[in-house]
Amino acid sequence: MNQGSDSMKMKPLLIAYVLMAVATAIQAAERPNILLIVSDDQGYNDLGELGNGIITPALDRLSREGTRLTNFYVSWPACTPSRASLLTGRYPQRNGIYDMIRNEAPDYGHKYSPDEYAVTFERIGGMDEREVIIPAVLKPVGYKSGIYGKWDLGALKRFLPTSRGFDDFYGFVNTGIDYFTHQRYGVPCMVRNLSPTDTDKGTYCTYLFQREAVRFLGEHANKKPFFLYVPFNAPHNSSALDPTTRSSVQAPDKFKEMYPPVDAETKIATKYRYGTPATLATADARRRDYRAAVTCMDAAITEMLNMLDQKQILDDTIVIFFSDNGGSGGADNSPLRGHKGQTWEGGIRVPCIVRWPNGGVRAGAINNAFLSSLELMPSLASAAGAELPTDIALDGFDWWPTLRGETTSPRKEMFWKRRDQLGARIGKWKWVKMGDAGGLFDLETDIKEQNDLSESRPKILEMVKAHYADWLNEMEAAEPRGPFRDF
């Protein structure tokens, strides 16, 4: 009798658990998958559909089926701080990564010994452990997350992706590598989760990141919602000590052969920082190699899209593509002025494409709204129904109403600081300070930043500089973060 009574008491509880589980499963199914693809040093004009001769069928497809953003910025004109910002939704000056985590000595031909390298800043520096990144925000609502490619936010175990919220990681941990040896200036750099590995040494790394990303999609499609982050190192120059290799981008021959042959592969440089003379890639060879690396990356993106198609979840997946900063080397940033490392538009305005038809993002559209990578964290959290941290300040906002064409962009201003290179945009006005160069520019009529209006519009210049000073004061008053800040 008691046993039956207990059984009767358990049934409502069991039913409640079952209903809760069903509700959770339905809610998870409604959450979109996320595929975030970031290229490295890709030029603003380097999309096949823009007509400069580069071959990018996958990116062109994303543009046809999604929305291309023409007024999209990153928060810093080079790798490490830009990547920290897109994952945290915070300015580099706020999250603590406001310069590169890298060693300078190899730039001048120095090869570290293992013991020497182990205590350099490139080895021991990393993003402050208090910073919260996208996968950690998505995890409480059931997302499985993976990252395959370039991490660049710390090499020690406590800084690695699986210590920060990712479930799986395969890639390299610093700013650049040799595409085949996976070494940075002779130092092995590939890691799986928390363990160094050289298992795949000799295989072109874009192929490896493609392999891991497609595997992840195959394993997790139609199960839990997923966040897949694929930060390629293509088309960044090789980080090899040999000047011939380092002066260009490594790419497989079959992709080089897709472009016209060059007259001369190398040249002798009489002035070179490694010492003279040095054999370097010619400008034509560097341009071809750069394009080949982009096309190889594009082929990897094709495989990811094909897997999403095969699993019939492409339209349920948010696909976002952009470059971490402006192009360099063989890149084409036209019509913008400048390149990677500079606060001219060519260093900070980058190509960006968003595809999410089930989220109302229009196909074949061009969106000129003022937007940035700082918007990623709040936008992805919004799409996933995840809660944002309440104890830290974010510098972005939910961009979906803007991408759907429902509202104008809430972003009215943005600021940049790379050492003594400064930039500020307030509405259409852009102030740049690049050493002795710079000025005030009207981006609506002068996207090339050719006509300095500093003298003819002094009050506007004063206003923009005042906004910049206010922003800088806000950043300095923020709770300090390592590794650069003194606190």
Automatic annotation (TrEMBL):
Tell me yes or no: is Hydrolase among this UniProt entry's keywords.
yes
Q: Which domain of life is it from?
A: Bacteria
Keyword Hydrolase included in the entry's annotation:
yes
Record's keyword terms, sorted = Hydrolase
Question: Where do the Sulfatase N-terminal domain residues begin and end?
Answer: 32-386
Spell out the Pfam families in the cross-references.
Sulfatase (PF00884)
Task: List the GO molecular function terms.
Answer: arylsulfatase activity
What does the record give as EC number? 3.1.6.1
| Family in the record | Belongs to the sulfatase family.
Protein name per its UniProtKB record: Arylsulfatase
